[in-house]
Amino acid sequence: MVDFRSLFVFLLSITFVVGDCPCPDESLCRPLQTGSRHEKVAFMVSKDNWRAYDYNQITTLVICTDSFDPQLVCLAHSRQVRLAWLANYDVKQLGNVTARSEWVRAQVNKVKSTYTDGINFDMEDDIPDGSIMADQYTQLVQELTNLIHIEISGSMVSVDVAWSAPCIDGRCYDYQGLARVSDFLFVMAYDLRSQIYDLNDCIASANSPIARVAAGLTNYTQVFEIASSKLVLGVPWYCYDYTCLSLDVNQTCQIQHVPFRGSPCSDAAGTQHDYQYCRQLLRVNATTTRMIDNRTGGVFFDYFNQGDGKTHQIWMDDPETLVIKYDLATDRRLLGIGMWHVDALDYSPNATKEARQDTIDMWNAMKRFHVTETETN
Ligand SMILES: *[C@@H]1O[C@H](CO)[C@@H](O)[C@H](O)[C@H]1NC(C)=O
Ligand SMILES: *[C@@H]1O[C@H](CO)[C@@H](O)[C@H](O)[C@H]1NC(C)=O
Ligand SMILES: *[C@@H]1O[C@H](CO)[C@@H](O)[C@H](O)[C@H]1NC(C)=O
Ligand SMILES: *[C@@H]1O[C@H](CO)[C@@H](O)[C@H](O)[C@H]1NC(C)=O
Ligand SMILES: *[C@@H]1O[C@H](CO)[C@@H](O)[C@H](O)[C@H]1NC(C)=O
Ligand SMILES: *[C@@H]1O[C@H](CO)[C@@H](O)[C@H](O)[C@H]1NC(C)=O
Q1: pLDDT at residue 371 in the model
Q2: Which positions fall inside the GH18 domain (predicted)?
């Protein structure tokens, strides 16, 4: 009997291989081949800025848009940068073996047909402690990794994980398993105020406090025994804007009680903005100077919002606080660093001199991550 399904898949794969390579140099359409190297992972959410990125500071560009300019393949591959698609899978179908294998097949075909190099899993749904879904998710990642590594040499699969294990934001995933079956984990070391249980602490504060970020990494490497060489430290290139219900002499900004996954207070009370937006607020609208909170290492300032007539407090990271995180990644011998997201900077040709300098400074700060000597020995 003819297996029509395999035949169909086979024909599809032929079509993809002979598809139109957008690059003058056809070798740029092959998946990137590199030896083992450190990672700098950038998440792309806009189709407009890719020509302006600093490709010396990127090794993997994760595409979070539904499509991209095919010329990006030529530029990225010529600069030894991998392209990975952000991927999500319906949690309700985690136990459906048929749906899983169809989805995995579709992802591999998508990577092939677009001359890209891999998949980045961004599942952020909650999975209850002890649920079989945690194993099924690991299984899904394994199925994809197995197939894509066979069919696309040089391809990579990464998984985005919370700032710490085991159950941050109700995400009780099998972190050890995910590390084992993927090429690396992208640790999202931000949104640390997503669950605040003490209502006395329902105040604006740092998005990515350095001591807790370090503790989260320690949890992954010590408690869960995940090799540091499997971890990429993801930092925020975005800021939080909180409306203050009240603001005292110590700059304590009380915020509205907005619950999240079982906690009565969360950073959902704030609004996320791009780095460049908050820098502009600091230059134009701030009513205080830029301050550093010595307890969390976060940058903050107040401004008067003309829209609602209220005082707001901004919390953010900037090159001064980011290099401390990049140094942490170096010190812990992590696989790399990365950011959410790369389009938070001002790349427009009409950008002000200050905004343009901010963009340069943010890219330059990434140079701080480096491979330590003992490691290259
Ligand atoms: C399992 O997935 C297949 C393929 O997507 C679908 O046709 C089927 O309805 C799913 N089964 C259930 C119980 O959802
Ligand atoms: C680290 O893991 C332990 C054991 O699971 C847990 O009790 C602790 O809260 C975790 N620490 C952090 C900072 O998440
Ligand atoms: C401000 O901080 C000082 C020193 O920590 C403390 O003594 C004072 O009570 C604080 N004021 C308010 C309004 O919280
Ligand atoms: C943090 O510490 C520095 C140096 O000790 C100090 O100048 C600064 O005022 C402190 N920041 C705040 C917000 O207290
Ligand atoms: C910041 O100041 C500018 C110039 O006064 C104003 O146009 C803008 O609306 C202000 N932004 C906010 C968010 O209040
Ligand atoms: C630059 O131009 C863009 C699009 O033309 C516009 O949206 C933006 O506001 C401009 N920025 C400045 C700083 O003038």
Answers
A1: 80
A2: 1-373
Residue 76 has pLDDT above 90, yes or no: yes
Is 255 within the bounds of a domain?
no
Tally of domains within the chain: 1
Instruction: List the one residue out of 324, 316, 281 whose CA is nearest residue 298.
Output: 316
Mean pLDDT across 57-75: 98
**pLDDT reported for residue 128:** 95
Give this prediction's pTM.
Answer: 0.92
Query: Nearest ligand, CA of residue 89?
Result: 1
Q: Decide if 292 is inside a domain.
A: no
Query: CA-to-CA distance for 224 and 370, rounded, in angstroms?
Result: 25
Ligand 3 in reach of 295 Cβ (< 6 A): no
For residue 258, is it within any domain? no
* Cα(166)–Cα(175) distance, integer angstroms: 7
Strand-pairing partners, residue 86, are 120
State yes or no: pLDDT of 3 exceeds 70.
no
Q: Which residue's alpha carbon is nearest to atom 4 within ligand 3? A: 250
Catalytic residue among 124, 143, 320, 373: 124
Tokens describing residue 46: 């806009």
State the distance from the centre of ligand 6 to the C-alpha of 350, rounded, in angstroms: 6
Residue 109: give the domain boundaries.
4-236+317-376
- Nearest ligand (C-alpha, residue 294): 4
102 given a catalytic annotation: no
The pLDDT value recorded for residue 373 is 56
Q: Assign residue 64 a region: left if phi > 0, alpha if psi is -120 to 50, beta otherwise?
A: alpha
Residue 290 lies in a domain: no
DSSP one-letter string for 76-93: HHHTT-EEEEEE---GGG
Ligand 5 pocket check for 306: Cβ under 6 Å: yes
CATH of the domain at 41: 3.20.20.80
